[in-house]
């Protein structure tokens, strides 16, 4: 027995004084309405109505049930209405997750979304660990690398180029490496991965293969922005993601090096659960971010800009 449905039919029958009219009101047959009320009486072990051929009247037990059930049904109806509004209004809480490394690329568009839709309550978490949307109760995640597994829907936004670069000041003082091997005679930065605690190797396209090299780090950080700042300060050469390096390279604050060995095997993704059951605020946010970031040239460089021949 569907208890909520049975109680709803009981309440309408009590209000209308007629089971047939209650059935029409609920969009079911009179036989189904009668059966539901009888099942409810059987489950409760009491009679709820005095029945005549023309009219229903409540028993004492029926009157008490009606008094208790009406407020509960009103609250349930309000809860359903609130849930339906989530499909119709761009409002309510929105939880997003992204690695700290992607803050530079993602955050300005998130703020633009917040300004456009002030009724959405944003809760942003920047964490370099991969976020399980279900476990962390997040609505939308961003990830750099390969598409997330585990049933999430992933959409590619941007390519990630790994660019060896240095500041003009560093090159003036120390010169520029002409080959990958010459990096050994230069000060270099390193990035320590949050998930393993190990320094990430640098990677290079040599011929048709990606080759990984352990580059001794003169300065190592577990934050890509801190690493980028060290390179910008002229302290060392770094291999930076294009989302960090594209703007300062265009502005002349960094110079790309060894561009013939640049790799571009990973991407930035937005990921989320089943789109068909998403509230409107979540679907709107996904569409907004996809529109703002997909192949956005602000965050990667062309071959001409990199002087790749």
Tell the overall outline. rod-shaped
Helix content: 25-40%
Rg (CA only)? 31 Å
Regarding quaternary structure, how should these chains be classified? single chain
Provide the residue-averaged pLDDT: 87
Contiguous runs where pLDDT drops below 50 for at least 5 residues: none
Strand content: 15-25%
Sketch the topology as an H/E string, one letter per element: HHHEEHEHEHEEHEEEEHEHEEH
Q: Major sheet: size, sense and barrel closure?
A: 7 strands, mixed
CATH architecture of the largest domain: 3-Layer(aba) Sandwich
Number of helices: 10
Protein name: LysR family transcriptional regulator
Family: Belongs to the LysR transcriptional regulatory family.
GO molecular function: DNA binding; DNA-binding transcription factor activity
Keywords: DNA-binding, Transcription, Transcription regulation
What descriptors fit this protein?
13 strands; D-Maltodextrin-Binding Protein, domain 2; LysR_subst-bd; two-stranded antiparallel ribbon; seven-stranded mixed beta sheet; DNA binding; 10 helices; 309 residues; LysR_HTH_N; alpha/beta; Arc Repressor Mutant, subunit A
Describe this protein's structure.
With 309 residues, the chain is an alpha/beta fold. It has three domains: 3-84, Arc Repressor Mutant, subunit A (Orthogonal Bundle), CATH 1.10.10; 92-158 and 271-295, D-Maltodextrin-Binding Protein, domain 2, CATH 3.40.190; 159-266, Periplasmic binding protein-like II (D-Maltodextrin-Binding Protein, domain 2, 3-Layer(aba) Sandwich). 39% of the residues lie in helices and 24% in strands. It has ten helices and 13 strands. Strands 3, 4, 5, 6, 11, 12 and 13 form a seven-stranded mixed beta sheet that branches. Strand 1 (49-51) and strand 2 (56-58) form a beta hairpin. Helix 1 (3-16) crosses helix 2 and helix 1 crosses helix 3 (30-44). It is rod-shaped. The model has no long low-confidence stretch (mean pLDDT 87). GO terms for molecular function: DNA binding; DNA-binding transcription factor activity. Belongs to the LysR transcriptional regulatory family. This is LysR family transcriptional regulator. Residues 1-59 form the HTH lysR-type domain.
């Amino acid at each position: 027995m569907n208890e909520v449905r049975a109680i709803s039919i009981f309440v309408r029958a009590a209000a209308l004084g007629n089971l047939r009219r209650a059935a029409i009101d609920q969009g079911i047959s009179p036989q189904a309405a009668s059966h539901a009320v009888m099942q409810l009486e059987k489950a409760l072990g009491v009679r709820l109505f005095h029945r005549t051929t023309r009219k229903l009247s409540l028993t004492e037990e029926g009157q008490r049930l009606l008094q208790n059930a009406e407020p509960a049904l009103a609250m349930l109806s309000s809860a359903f209405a609130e849930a339906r509004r989530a499909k119709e209004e761009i409002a309510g809480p929105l939880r997003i997750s992204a690695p700290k490394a992607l803050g530079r690329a993602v955050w300005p568009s998130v703020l633009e979304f917040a300004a456009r839709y002030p009724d959405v309550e944003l809760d942003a978490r920047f964490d370099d660990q991969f976020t399980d949307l279900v476990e962390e109760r997040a609505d939308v995640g961003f990830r750099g690398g390969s598409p997330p597994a585990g049933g999430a829907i992933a959409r590619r936004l941007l390519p990630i180029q790994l660019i060896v670069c240095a500041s003009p000041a560093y090159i003036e003082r120390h010169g520029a490496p002409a080959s990958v091997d010459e990096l050994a005679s230069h000060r270099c930065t390193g990035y320590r991965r949050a998930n393993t605690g190990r320094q990430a190797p640098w990677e290079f396209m040599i011929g048709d293969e990606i080759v990984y090299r352990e580059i001794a780090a003169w300065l190592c950080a577990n934050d890509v922005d801190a690493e980028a700042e060290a390179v910008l300060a002229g302290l060392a050469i770094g291999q930076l993601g294009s989302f960090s390096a594209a703007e300062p390279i265009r502005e002349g604050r960094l110079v790309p090096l060894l561009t013939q060995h640049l790799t571009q095997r990973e991407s930035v993704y937005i990921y989320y659960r089943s789109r068909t059951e998403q509230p409107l605020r979540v679907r709107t946010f996904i569409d907004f971010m996809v529109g703002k970031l997909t192949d956005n040239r602000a965050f990667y460089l062309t071959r001409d800009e990199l002087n790749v021949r």
